[in-house]
Description:
The protein has helices at residues 10-19, 26-37, 51-63, 82-95, 112-120, 130-138, 155-160, 164-172, 189-198, 229-239, 252-264, 278-290, 323-330, 351-361, 429-437, 443-450, 471-477, 483-488, 493-496, 526-529; strands at residues 41-44, 75-78, 103-106, 125-128, 149-152, 179-184, 203-206, 217-223, 245-248, 269-272, 295-298, 313-316, 340-346. The strands form two sheets. The protein has a seven-stranded parallel sheet with strand order 3-4-2-5-6-1-7, with helices on both faces. By secondary structure, the protein is α/β, with parallel strands linked by helices. The chain is flat. Among the domains are: 3-206, 3-Layer(aba) Sandwich (Rossmann fold); 217-361, P-loop containing nucleotide triphosphate hydrolases (Rossmann fold), CATH 3.40.50.300.
Amino acid sequence: MSFESLGLSAPVLQAVADKGYTTPTPIQEKAIPIVLMGRDVLGCAQTGTGKTASFVLPMIDILSQGRAKARMPRTLILEPTRELAAQVAENFETYGKHNKLNMALLIGGVSFPDQERALERGVDVLIATPGRLLDHFERGGILLNDVKILVIDEADRMLDMGFIPDVERIVATLPTLRQTLFFSATMPPEIKRLADRFLSNPKEVTVSPPASASTTIVQGLIVVPEDDKREALLALIKSQEVKNAIVFCNRKRDVATLHTVLKKHGLNAGALHGDMSQPARTETLEKFKAGDIQILVASDVAARGLDVQDMSHVFNYDVPFSPEDYVHRIGRTGRAGKVGHSFTLAAPFEGGLIEAIEKLIGTTIPRIEVPGLETAVLEAGDGRRRGRGGRGGRGGARPGAAAGDKPRGPRREPRAPREHREPHPEASAEPQAAVAEAPRDVHMEAAAEAHREPRPERAPRERRPERAPREHAAREHAPREPRAERSAQPPRERNSERSPERRPERRRDRDDGGPAPVGLGDHVPAFLARSPR
């Protein structure tokens, strides 16, 4: 089947021909006609099968008619990482060069003003990571009520990175009447439940078993002690005809350390991990794709969707914790029907992780020996996830220990029950007999009394002399005088000392001849001056 039979327009077919593609992949062959029909799609295919083009090509045809409004995108594509979002943007530029469509890329590490200016011009295609999109939405810089097509790409990676709550918030702001395209390399039960919530009567497209490795990839497993991994990696790179390769590590600090080691041995290597700034990550990827960097030491940020032409090798310096990540890592090679090679370095204690990977892909990874290095044997796994340097079983780290934890020493023998312990040799027979005859709840108290030394008697304290009662205390306990007697007493001396000439007359008679109320001075209200009736 050719691209012409899929119903694509002439400008899109011209762009595909310029790219050099003549035959669609199985996922493109099945998904493109359904997307052009306007139906929801649930696509599941292994990495490297062309999922991106399966929704980019029909979307360009759909968007060729109409015009976008300012801050109101017509389509939305959600990606889990910046690298994937940037790669999808490159595909739109490649396949849509004969169509006049505006595109905006909202990812972290880029200034907000530049992205806001792109949104103000009107966007037909908006490609974003969930976090940065929500930042613009909460600032009021974007409206999502005009989105006609929603694409959720690499949904399983969204789940692994914890972006599903953000995706749910974004979907809640979109119009109910829309077309949703849901793509994932694996289909665990959690992803299936999300698809049932987001999609309406979808057409499921599955072109290969979920999480299966491509048949064009030659796999190999090298089991060596943990301390020999660096020598094994260097020996593999020198013995293989490596055109370009990615070396995957589980931790960011291991990426930096291994990058330094490869540089010291004269290899043209670069590093890529999540703690790097966005300009540095973009520059490193461009150099790697252009061939300026031969070996890229990276974390799992490069395990999804990274498309590099004719990548020859993938090295797993660390066995991935998730079996699905193994499939995505080795899927960077052997793309577009070309042969690739992947080698995994495993320590003996990582036997459980290798068992999970082989169970997922449905085949046993061939064992390979490195000349000059001792070949170890994988230990049986217990299904627990361990970090680097942790060993299961005898003499190793405790099961489930975090990466970098020091192994504990040998376990102590359990203590014997209290009633079966041997008596202390220095203890006398009498206290022991007393303890044996005493009830169980007083054994501890009896043993303590037997070894307790008598305390010296303390001298009695001297009694303090009694203090004389204070005067104010005597006044407080004195009997109070009756109210009548107190009222008969003359006023205080301080009032009598005041001169009658200087003291104004503040009393005035009421209208009935009685005395005026005392205490209000010259400002006596009228109702108080009247006599009561």
